[in-house]
Amino acid sequence: MIESSSPPKEFRSHNADFRLRYAWPKAYANTNTPCRGCLDPLDPLTGKPLSKHFLYGTDSNQPVHYMIYGKDPWDIWYNHLEAAVAHLAMLMAQQGLIANTSTHIDDPANTAKLDVLARNFKDTFFMLHRNEWKARTVDEYQRQYDVLLKELGDFSVSNLDNTAYRNLQETICHNAVANARKLDAWMYGDEPPSSARKRMSLLYELIQDLKQVEGIPIPAVPTRYNSKPSRQQQLLDRIDSARSLPESLLRSACAQPPLQGQAGLMIDAGLRISEDAGLLFDSLRAIDTSQGTLYYVEITGQLSPSGKRTEITKTDSSYRTVPISYELAQDLVRYRQKLEETHGDLSLRLLCGQGEEDGFNDSPAKAAAWQERISKLVPQLLRQKDFSRALASARAYCFSQKAQDIALRDRSTCHALRRNFCTWLYCQSGLDTAEIYRQMGHSYGPLQKKAAGLTPEELRRMCLRKYVSPTLYHSANPLRYSVDGAQRMTEVPACEVILTLPTGTSIELTVEDSEPGNVIQITGEGLNVQLLRKDERHDMQYTYALLADEAEITILTKHKLFQ
């Protein structure tokens, strides 16, 4: 039977007046309860909606707005409204707002299902905590909240005690382990997966809010789940051999389909997979330097779980600029040129999209499918026998081969490429701590934030540091300069500098070397070089100097080459 009209907007029940409004939120369009009812008890004296201050005794002057969900307005009216009205009427009677016509009022919330209360309270719950979490965190918590609703189905308010809460925590953790990539077993007291920790935290906040804000007579509040990782787990967390992947194997892996092109940015630039999938064609930028055209990527967003690109990154520090290897950049440039010959300008389209017969497809479904495919292919590549044997042989400490092998396999994910890039930054890039944090997209207290971003000169120096450092795509490149008589210095430190000198000229070089064990060599045709140190020439103002023999050429100017 289909009703031809909507239920009454105002009605009287349980000796109290109520106002009921309906809405169809987009967020619930594809759920079993797409309709939302907003129920407000009315003040008997003024006829206006009661505030939470008068009904619950809180400090809020906002209307009660008790949320009820159903398939449609009539489903709410017939199947869900009575319990909500009886509960609010009971609270009004306790506050003396309406007459208590019976000697005893049983609160229907005592027998109400916890999942029903949680579903009706969802909007209010996230409104209460909206200032505590960032937008990205809210999206993740809303997904975990929906999962939690399914896990609350067998529990009612009246039987919530310590035993019930422990059973609920075990249910949450076992469900999380079943869907986890890094865990295959869990016992009470062990550290649970991150999704379980989020849901148990939401459960604690939910029970507190239902009790304090909604006035639900919950007999007991759960204690927070305290887990202590085992000594073995602590050792496994500290001995993470997957942080430095075998360079030779990674170099060959870069030529294989899973890591060719865009996916290679996770190795070469340390991008998170969501950041990699959220790159636009225009995110790849070029800049002219003394060594030619070099490239970098700008991270200004990421791919959401739904496949849509969002400008909201994981953290504020995730907005950053990262240089990439020239060889990888050239592959991406050629890929774009090939697509644009058929599909036109693709500047603002997703780089992970695909060219099809009817046009370029970078729809949310296509982008999400690309990210999911890479998320599966990369672990398969890293878990091959060659990688496993190489990583196992590089262990500094072996205490449980089986447990370490399992932990190594669990960490061989797309994020292992990002950890490997971080290790490369610390060990081979020569960058200071602040610059490493900036390129990784991590927050660093002493690092000053710049609203305008990097200057062109800072961009050039950043790209040149990448150019002179060895990566998986090239060995350390030398800096090449043509000396024309003017004073010149290298923009960044380098392992090798190649100078082109005009015929009949002389030059004085000053080399600043921060590593005493380094060997400095100067080679060339027709050169006579004398190495002078500070302790040999007391009148010199610099630490190390490479000067041409005065018998052959005349020193014209002093010049600092390395900084």
From TrEMBL:
GO molecular function annotation: DNA binding
Domain Tyr recombinase per the UniProt entry, residue ranges: 221-480
InterPro entries for the chain: DNA_brk_join_enz, Integrase-like_cat_sf, Integrase_catalytic
Magnesium among keywords: no
Key words of the record: DNA recombination
Gene3D superfamilies named in the record: Intergrase catalytic core (1.10.443.10)
Tree of life domain: Bacteria
The keyword Ubl conjugation belongs to this UniProt entry's keyword annotation: no
One Gene Ontology biological process: DNA integration
Protein name: Site-specific integrase
UniProt organism field: Subdoligranulum variabile
